[in-house]
Write a structure and sequence with these properties.
Helices cover about 45% and strands about 20% of the residues. The chain has about 260 residues and is of the alpha/beta class. Helix 1 (about 5-20) packs across helix 4 and helix 8 (about 200-215) runs antiparallel to helix 9 (about 220-240). The protein is globular and about 55 Å long. The N and C termini lie far apart (about 50 Å). The structure holds S-adenosylmethionine.
C-alpha cells in the first residue's frame, strides 16, 4: 500500500525530533531575529517549517517538488507560503532570505552542488545557508552484530531509489566549493535511553519493510527480515541495542 502524505508527515515529525537540539543550536548560532525571512528547501509536509513558523520566525517560506506533500502541509499550516518547486532552480530573486536551510534533502537530489549554489544565491549577504541533517550510512553502527545486515539493505534500498547513502561526508566539501564562508560542520550526537517505545521500533520496521519492497533481491531479503526483526526487538528489550547513523550538519555564511 502506498504511504499517504499523512503517514509521511508522522515520519518526518519523528525524524525532526532526532535533530531538534542541533537545529536550536544552529538557528541560535546564526543569530536571527523573529522577523528574519527564512526558506525551507525540500520542506516535505512542513514538519520543520510548520514548527518554526509558530515559534521561531515570523516569515517562513517552504518549497518542495512533491505536490501532495505541499497540499498536506497547507492543510496543517494554511497561512504559510509553500510552493511546488525544484531546489535546483529556486523560484526566488537573489538575496531575499536571511537564512536558507534544508533537512534530509541533499541525499535525494541529483545535483547537490547546484542546490547549495541556489540556496546561496537567494540568501542575502550576512545571511546563512544551513544543511541541518545529511546522514552517512557508510559509518552506521549496529549492535548486536547480526543486525549489521539492516544497513546493507538500507544502503541498497536508498541507491535503488536514486538517493546517495553517503551524502554526509560530502557536505563540507560542497559548502566550500559553493564559496560559503565561516563554515562549521559537525555530526549530530546520539543518546540511548532505556525507555524506547515498542511503537517506535515497530514504526522503524515499517520503514525498513517498505524500503525492502523496492529491492531487486526482495524475496531473498524477506526470508531473513522476520528473524532479524526478532533479534532487533529482543536487543531493544534487553537494553543492548545500539543504532547510530552519523548525521552531518553544515552552516555557512554568505558574504
Ligand atoms: C526526506 S524528505 C525531508 C522532508 C523535510 N525536509 C523534512 O525533513 O521533514 C526529502 C524531501 O525532499 C524533497 N525533494 C527531493 N528532491 C527535490 C528537489 N529536487 N526539489 C525540491 N524538493 C525535493 C522530497 O519531495 C521530500 O519532501
Amino acid at each position: 500500500m502506498p504511504i499517504t502524505p499523512k503517514e509521511w508527515h508522522k515520519r518526518f515529525k519523528l525524524q525532526s525530533q532526532w535533530t531538534k537540539s542541533t537545529r536550536e543550536y544552529l538557528f541560535q548560532g546564526a543569530g536571527f531575529s523573529f522577523s528574519s525571512r527564512v526558506l525551507d528547501v525540500g520542506c516535505g509536509t512542513g514538519a520543520i517549517s510548520g514548527e518554526i513558523s509558530q515559534t521561531k520566525f515570523d516569515h517562513v517560506v517552504g518549497i518542495d517538488l512533491n505536490i501532495e506533500f505541499i497540499r498536506h502541509a497547507l492543510t496543517i499550516n494554511s497561512g504559510q507560503q509553500l510552493n511546488v518547486a525544484d531546489a535546483h532552480s529556486l523560484p526566488f530573486k537573489n538575496d531575499i532570505f536571511g537564512c536558507t536551510f534544508c533537512h534530509f534533502l541533499l541525499m535525494w537530489v541529483s545535483d547537490p552542488a547546484q542546490v547549495i549554489r541556489e540556496m546561496k544565491r537567494v540568501t542575502s549577504p550576512g545571511g546563512s545557508v544551513l544543511a541541518l541533517a545529511e546522514p552517512d550510512y557508510g559509518g552506521r553502527i549496529d549492535y548486536p552484530e547480526q543486525l549489521a545486515i539492516i544497513n546493507e539493505w538500507q544502503i541498497a534500498a536508498l541507491k535503488d531509489q536514486g538517493a546517495n547513502p553517503f551524502m554526509g561526508r560530502k557536505i563540507k566539501a560542497l559548502f566550500h566549493q559553493a564559496g560559503l564562508d565561516e563554515i562549521e560542520v559537525g555530526v549530530i550526537g546520539a543518546q540511548w535511553t532505556a525507555d524506547i517505545q515498542e511503537k517506535e521500533i515497530l514504526s522503524e520496521w515499517e520503514i525498513i519493510r517498505s524500503d525492502l519492497m523496492g529491492l531487486s533481491k526482495k524475496s531473498e531479503v524477506e526470508k531473513t527480515a522476520d528473524e532479524i526483526q526478532k533479534i532487533d526487538q529482543a536487543a531493544w528489550a534487553l537494553g543492548e541495542r545500539i543504532l547510530f547513523v552519523p548525521t552531518f550538519y553544515a552552516l555557512g555564511m554568505v558574504r
